[in-house]
């Protein structure tokens, strides 16, 4: 019956699309048309991306070249879903021989790849002036002229429109004058985009279960290399230059029939070293991915070892109840053999003594070694994160635990454990009802946590266990 219901819902979605009506956003979409926003630096691409997306997804800053990796999201225009991509700016003036110049070349390469895959190219221009970068980039776009929509930005209230008409000399069929920041004529732009797209191949269906992986760690630990390896793509720019990744770059892949979403984040450095505003926002975005992720892969450079920063990142993930895997990357650079790995594991256990449950996996993202083991471990953790124990089984286990280790008998520290319920999954949380929760020691709470992990199958993830006052026994509570 569930399959029939899903099929009916899917057919209804297709009918709605054909009739031009809005599609509910809780569905899953395939074969969506791809709209790529391009232009030189600082013309407002990320601002327009956020405007069309109706959220602050891309980092916006007056500094040219803030966006480096292409960022892709599903946007709903007039209720219709599209894949919307923000790209790095095309820079003509480069400081030859510098790392910034190398980065600029990599950004342009990524943008040119996006152009080939695009169903529609949204070329964003600046009303203020026509530059050499505009001219060179427009010449590169000639092979894609049939799928270009040209929009001149920063024309709020009609300002600079007379100067903006000068772009017509490049042979555009039409120009749209907009303001991404103020929202001027965005409706007209939306209608133009929809009028140029083909939705006939789009398919809809109920959302599948997707395991969301966040890759976190210090700069240059191989996060983007792993992300590209997992997604079989080059969505993330890979460079030895610290701070290469700024926005959170998302990708998708399937392994053994399971769908995954991977979030490649900016490297998190010590606060004292985070000087630029752009990097400040990048780090904040990286930390916020913890709220979206199921499992966190903490990337550790096997050559450099652990740092205090790794400890802080892990504490944030632990506090949110996320599954955590310590990933020893660049293991191909180390002496191979069990003794070397054992020593590295011991170092991690010493620094993260309260997290003996977290798996440690050695990999080489560059060579692809250890990836299957890593993904199998991610699947195991996700299974634990989404596991639900019924109340009856929980309290039978609790009875055994309390019998094996009774609460203290002294009058001042005396308490009774009444019953336990599981209050949530992913993060996994439990609520223990006690007669005097305020006197229950941390030692006893740790004991209960360890028993939950060991006896109930949560041995590789953090769990949240809280206490609450109650005078009832769990059997009485169930009857009420």
Low-confidence stretches: 1-19, 58-68, 236-247, 267-282
DSSP helix count?
Answer: 14
Percent helix range: 25-40%
Instruction: Estimate what percentage of residues fall within beta strands.
Output: 15-25%
Strand order of the largest sheet: 3-4-2-5-6-7
Rg from Cα: 27 Å
Overall pLDDT score:
81
Largest sheet: 6 strands, mixed
* Structural class estimated from helices and strands: alpha/beta
Total strand segments: 17
**N-C termini distance:** 33 Å
What would you call the shape?
elongated
Give structural attributes.
34% helix, 480 residues, 14 helices, six-stranded mixed β-sheet, 17 strands, alpha/beta
Description:
By secondary structure, the protein is α/β, with parallel strands linked by helices. Helices cover 34% and strands 21% of the residues. It has 14 helices and 17 strands. The protein has helices at 2-18, 45-53, 99-117, 132-140, 161-164, 186-195, 223-231, 277-288, 308-319, 338-351, 371-385, 391-404, 442-456, 474-479; strands spanning 27-30, 34-38, 71-77, 80-86, 120-126, 148-153, 176-177, 203-206, 210-217, 249-255, 258-264, 295-301, 323-329, 360-362, 417-424, 429-434, 464-469. A six-stranded mixed β-sheet has the order 3-4-2-5-6-7, sandwiched between helices. A hairpin with a 4-residue loop joins strand 15 (417-424) and strand 16 (429-434). Helix 12 packs across helix 13 (442-456). The longest helix has 19 residues, at 99-117. 36% of the residues are buried. Mean pLDDT is 81; it is low at 1-19, 58-68, 236-247 and 267-282.
């Amino acid at each position: 019956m569930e399959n029939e219901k899903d099929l009916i819902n899917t057919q209804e979605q297709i009918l709605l699309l054909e009739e031009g009506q809005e599609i509910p956003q809780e569905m899953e979409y395939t074969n969506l048309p791809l709209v790529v926003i391009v232009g030189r630096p600082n013309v407002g691409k990320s601002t327009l991306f956020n405007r069309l997306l109706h959220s602050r997804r891309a980092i916006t800053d007056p500094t040219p070249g803030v966006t480096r990796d292409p960022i892709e999201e599903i946007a709903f225009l007039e209720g219709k879903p599209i894949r919307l991509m923000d790209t790095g700016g095309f820079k003509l003036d480069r400081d030859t021989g510098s790392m910034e110049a190398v980065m600029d070349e990599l950004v342009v390469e990524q943008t040119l790849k996006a152009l080939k895959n695009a169903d529609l190219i949204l070329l964003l221009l600046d009303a203020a002036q026509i530059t050499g970068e505009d001219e060179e980039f427009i010449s590169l776009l000639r092979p894609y002229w049939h799928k270009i929509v040209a929009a001149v930005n920063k024309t709020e209230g009609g300002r600079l429109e007379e100067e903006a008409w000068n772009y017509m000399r490049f042979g555009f069929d039409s120009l749209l004058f907009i303001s991404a920041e103020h929202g001027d004529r965005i409706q007209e732009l939306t209608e133009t985009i929809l009028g140029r797209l083909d939705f006939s191949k789009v398919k809809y269906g109920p959302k599948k279960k997707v395991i969301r992986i966040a890759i976190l760690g210090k700069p240059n630990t191989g996060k983007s290399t792993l992300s590209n390896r997992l997604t079989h793509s080059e969505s993330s720019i890979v460079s030895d230059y610290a701070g290469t990744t700024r926005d959170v770059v998302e990708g998708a892949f399937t392994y053994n029939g399971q769908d995954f979403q991977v979030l490649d984040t900016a490297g998190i450095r010590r606060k004292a070293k985070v000087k630029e505003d752009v990097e400040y926002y990048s780090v904040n975005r990286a930390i916020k991915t913890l709220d979206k992720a199921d499992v966190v892969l903490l990337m550790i450079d096997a050559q450099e070892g652990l740092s205090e920063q790794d400890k802080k990142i892990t504490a944030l993930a632990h506090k949110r109840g996320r599954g955590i895997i310590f990933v020893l990357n660049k293991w191909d650079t180390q002496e191979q053999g069990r003794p070397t790995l054992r020593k590295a594991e011991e170092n991690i256990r010493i620094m993260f003594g309260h997290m003996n449950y977290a798996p440690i996996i050695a990999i080489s993202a560059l060579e692809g070694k250890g990836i299957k083991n890593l993904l199998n471990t991610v699947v195991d953790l996700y299974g634990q994160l989404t596991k639900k124990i019924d109340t009856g089984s929980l309290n039978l286990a609790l009875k055994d635990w309390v019998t094996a280790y009774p609460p203290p008998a002294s009058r001042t520290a005396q308490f009774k454990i009444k019953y336990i319920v599981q209050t949530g999954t992913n993060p996994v949380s439990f609520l223990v009802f006690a007669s005097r929760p305020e006197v229950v020691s941390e030692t006893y709470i740790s004991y209960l946590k360890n028993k939950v992990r060991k006896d109930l199958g949560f041995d590789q993830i953090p769990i949240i266990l809280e206490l609450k006052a109650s005078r009832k026994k769990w059997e009485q509570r169930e009857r009420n």
